[in-house]
Fold this protein.
Amino acid sequence: MTEQATGAHHPQPRPRSGGPQSATVEHVTGAQSLIRSLEEVGADTVFGIPGGAILPAYDPMMDSRRVRHVLVRHEQGAGHAAEGYALATGKVGVCMATSGPGATNLVTPIADAHMDSVPMVAITGQVASASIGTDAFQEADIVGITMPITKHNFLVTKGEDIPRVIAEAFHIASTGRPGPVLVDIPKDILQAQTTFSWPPVMDLPGYRPVTKPHAKQIREAAKLVTAAKRPVLYVGGGVLKAGATAELKVLAELTGAPVTTTLMALGAFPDSHPLHVGMPGMHGSVTAVTALQKADLIVALGARFDDRVTGKLDSFAPHAKIVHADIDPAEIGKNRAADVPIVGDAREVIADLIQALQKEYSEGGRGDYTAWWNDLNRWRETYPLGYDQPHDGSLSPQQVIERIGQLAPEDTIFTAGVGQHQMWAAHFIQYDKPATWLNSGGAGTMGYSLPAAMGAKAGQPDRTVWAIDGDGCFQMTNQELTTCALNNIPIKVAIINNGALGMVRQWQTLFYNQRYSNTVLHAGPDAVGKENRGTRVPDFVKLAEAMGCYALRCESPDELDKVIEEANSINDRPVVIDFIVHEDAMVWPMVPAGTSNDSILAARDVRPDFGDGQDD
């Protein structure tokens, strides 16, 4: 991972390679070697839970003055906290669990980190070496289980390998395309005497990520940009991972091309910038979705043409040539063939592209995008993001989220769960800086928000962290409020409580004739189809208070600002606000699943007319 140009991220210190002649050798247990190795690679925070197989590692960790351990209430919380820590700090997140069910509880956050390219090292205990393969108590083949969802994983078989394996794990997790690495260590290896020497000699002969792009491909991309009439810069999360936000701003302003940032890239380019046309995708802005559809050139930077952005793939951007730049060569051409493929780190790609374009411009080659911007500005004015206030005077969820964003202190970090509240948080909070928006994009993991906020706050204790959560997501990982309360991690949680699994309910409204099968959360099955909002199980205020938090409830627009400001003023404990919002609010715009992006709806039954004769 390269350094964040804006200063928002700080890279994980690289493990150094060196020979035995420069190393200090110590005689220690495997467990002591593990903790010493974590100290040396710069890991300062570990989220985890002890158990039988990993227990030997917890004893020396108690004596470490450089590694802080946060005792979570569920291993899934440990994994998502490690993700939030990594994304908020730019360093490698670390989580730890015991064997069997402890390790398998990490599978979801490992898969989440893999999908979203989050640098994370998961350390798991394993049953003793002689018991592996015997179905011993609390045994699970976590190396085999996680092989498809890790960037790499290790089963340690010799104690003297621990320093090298930890150094390699952190190096692999944080370089190239970041991702999760699992290190599984049998209990007897942790208990046995071994040697510790640092720095280790890393042995990764097949691992050489390409960071420098090919000059010829850069020149070809620059020529396409100058020849285009309707270009779009399609920016993905890879730009954030590369710390390339300053370079991106220079590129956009140099070309004058519109910029669209994916759900994973919000904050990579300022939302407030006039060149920003919004987020693309199934629930993207009309302008962003349409810009990609009608483009004659798409410059994809650290993005992967996923199905949520493209809609029906064979109808996506039918007239566009594609420049696709990514550090992972496997992504290029995977979903959409590239006319100019560029393998490289986004920061270096963009920097070289800037130079190539400056050369093209100096020689008189420059595209004219005047007509293109006339179209884009007309769409922006005609189909802006917005929402209606409920007729019954109840709280609009969009208004709640919008006001949280407007009243939040500068540099606040926002996390979100998955569903309607996630999309509203993406649309109605303004992200002008990197590392201010953390969410589960690829995996779509309910329960991500609260523990990710916990990890972000642990890594950035001087910044405000708001978790925007749905009542469904919140009930999956809310036990980590106890962790926050007991470890002085004062996050703020907004529960957007519509009494339902909101996004699923929206689909039932639109596509299942309003048959709300098993999406009502606030009451039992007998209440389906009936107004029963007075019965709330659980009572989130009482629940939050029972876990050591300050809790509030807000049911009226008149109370909204007062409640949010009160939450912002409390910084000595976690704060939870139960916002009772209207249950029928929907996320718009929307491209129905499996259809072309040309089928985007600006609102229910409102199909945009782009005035070009193609969409009437």
